Amino acid sequence: MIDFKLGKLPLSKDIETKKVLKKLTSAHRALAELKGVVSSIPNQNILINTLGLQEAKDSSAIENIITTHDDIYKAELNLDGFKSLNAKEVQNYISALKKGFELITKQKILTKNNIISIQSELEKNNAGFRKVPGTALKNATTGETVYTPPQDYDTIVDLMTNLEQYINDATMSDFDDLVKMAIIHYQFESIHPFYDGNGRTGRIINVLYLVMNDLLNLPVLYLSRYIIEHKIEYYKLLQEVRETDNWEKWILYILDSVEQISKETIILISKIKALIFEYKNLLRNNYKFYSQDLLNNLFKHPYTKIEFIEKDLGVSRITAAKYLNLLAKDNILKKEKLGTGNYYVNIKLIKILTLEK
Ligand SMILES: Nc1ncnc2c1ncn2[C@@H]1O[C@H](COP(=O)(O)OP(=O)(O)OP(=O)(O)O)[C@@H](O)[C@H]1O
């Protein structure tokens, strides 16, 4: 382990090398296209839930909290018959993501306290920044300590205050926003301000930063799947910045993740969009009770239930049950039983979500 002291931002050297500038062009192009595709969906908010659940699953998997799609959609139903601790943790991730989005939408800035609220929603505790020393980052295979983050509470607060400034004050550095996102992620993970949840909170900060800088309107670019697929490199490159000041590779890694995931998400959203239109026509032409709210409900909740319909459509329980049962009878939804309750699966949507790369 090298002796390393984490410095404050901004960086004093220029890290926008030729390779980085070249990669920035293609990453931005893909991201801009994603922003456009998202805007073309009639009710974009459904995507936060549907894609957010995917991300919650992937991001939690990096922390070895493994669930299936079936489990996370079941957990969202909150029915008595289903208990899974891991799925509950995944639910906490999505509420932390939504909370973060709400905070930046309202306040337009991402403060230290916002970050604490996000982590607290994720971990369901109020521990805040680390106060007791002893945290060290270890190599998962050998158990060897690779990096000791700041141990002292005042130092952590000081570095987080500096990071807060860097996140919110664009004049502190004229690097491209995607380069800044990579720097912010490195810096946050290196401060490692919490006892737990630093990785997941850091991944939420990434997407919020994109929204704050108008690179996206909604938090729908999730890098976790890329990180899972390139996990060893992820840890190695973070460590290389520290050990050899090798920023270029780290920045290129993040830019490549933005480009690849943008492209994949464009395909996914396009498929969802086509299915929304298919269902819209199908429902509008065949059911008197068609409404935009009903359509949105079926896409916001890949597994839906009577109470969701009651609430979203403002109808009685009996009416909601009648609608869902009719759609199930016509094979538009699949009715399943869980404990004493029923739920209804949008099978075509599930196919898109689960067959997705
Ligand atoms: N050598 C390193 N340098 C900087 N950051 C590191 C290093 N090794 C790990 N990290 C960061 O620490 C995170 C893990 O921290 P922590 O266990 O608190 O978070 P988590 O959300 O619970 O876990 P995970 O990221 O595995 O989901 C990693 O995701 C990574 O971002």
From TrEMBL:
* InterPro entries found in the cross-reference section: Fic/DOC_N, Fido, Fido-like_dom_sf, Fido_containing, SoFic-like, SoFic-like_C
Active site (catalytic residues): H192
Task: One Pfam family, please name it.
Answer: Fic_N
Give the source's domain of life in one word.
Answer: Bacteria
Q: Could you tell me which residue ranges the Fido domain spans?
A: 110-256
Swiss-Prot/TrEMBL keywords: ATP-binding, Nucleotide-binding, Nucleotidyltransferase, Transferase
GO molecular function of the protein, one example? ATP binding
> Which positions does UniProt annotate for ATP binding?
E63, H192, D196, G197, N198, G199, R200, T201, G202, R203, Y234, Y235
> What's its EC?
2.7.7.-
The name of this protein is Adenosine monophosphate-protein transferase SoFic
Whichever gene encodes this chain, its name is fic
